[in-house]
Amino acid sequence: MAVVPQSGNQPGEQSRQDRGRAMETVAINEAFGTIVDVRERLDLRKSTRRDFLVELLEDLPELSDAECRELDDLREVYLYQSDGYVLTESTVNLLLLSPLVQLAGLVRPPYRIRAEVSVEITAEEEQRVYRGRIDTVVLRERFWILLVESKQTRFNFQAAVPQALVYMLGAPEPQRTIYGLVTNGDGFRFIKMVRSPEREYNLTEDFSVFATRNELYDVLRILKRIGALIVD
Question: Which helix (H) or strand (E) holds 30?
């Protein structure tokens, strides 16, 4: 765990009053290795309500024939380029993520994109401040897209979820529902989180680019639905 002290003094050299005020600064990507870490240390629980994800799974917008053809082509190109190779984050973004976001219409008004966002979460009980900067796409502060290196998550895609949850917890406007997408190109998982009155989250299934059926159809339909939700 990478800890950056707020001053040059060692803990043993500080007065009791100083220790009471001192807050350690901890890197998010090193502090939270599992979802259990996030749940236990940041008071987050997985929702058990059957209808929690209903807006991401039911009555999704239909796709046009042209959109389906575009998604078939995106998938074919991605599978060709990734056959025998581990694609970098920038290549996945070029081949797949950016075209999907554009097809969903999320680059036009009223959407605003931010990248390389800094997040800070204060855990008073632990006397720690969790900080991080993430290469992400944030739309209107309510939809966070986390693209991770394929080489880090190809065999354990779940490894990226804890970091996404922490960043979503640090988003502004805690009274509003926020959404997330974690992808490494090979797979896609959507996240829904509410933070009031209690902190709850849940995830969709993993939509895989390697499935027999083109599951990018589902990804685009959910992207469109989230786009409508975050401007409502």
Answer: helix 28-31
- Specify the pLDDT at position 31: 81
CA distance 86 to 89: 10
DSSP class of residue 208?
A: E
Amino acid at 163: Q
Higher pLDDT, 136 or 225: 225
Question: Residue 28 burial (CB < 10 Å; 0-12/13-18/19+)?
Answer: buried
Residues near 49 by beta carbon (within 8 Å), at least 6 away in sequence: none
- Residues 170 and 129: beta-carbon distance below 8 Å: no
Question: How far is residue 53's CA from residue 61's CA, in Å, rounded to a whole number?
Answer: 16
**Residue 157 near residue 187 (C-beta atoms within 8 A):** yes
Integer Cα distance of 174 and 202 in angstroms:
17
Tokens of 159: 């490894």
45: tokens are 């629980």
| Strand partners for 133 | 118
**For residue 150, with 0-12 CB atoms within 10 Å meaning exposed, 13-18 middle and 19 or more buried, which class applies?**
buried
Residue 230's Cα: distance from chain center in Å?
Answer: 15
Q: Token pair for residue 179? A: 């959404």
Euclidean distance between CA atoms 74 and 155, whole angstroms: 22
pTM exceeds 0.90, yes or no = no
Instruction: Indicate the burial class of 71 (C-beta count within 10 angstroms; 0-12, 13-18, 19 or more).
Output: buried
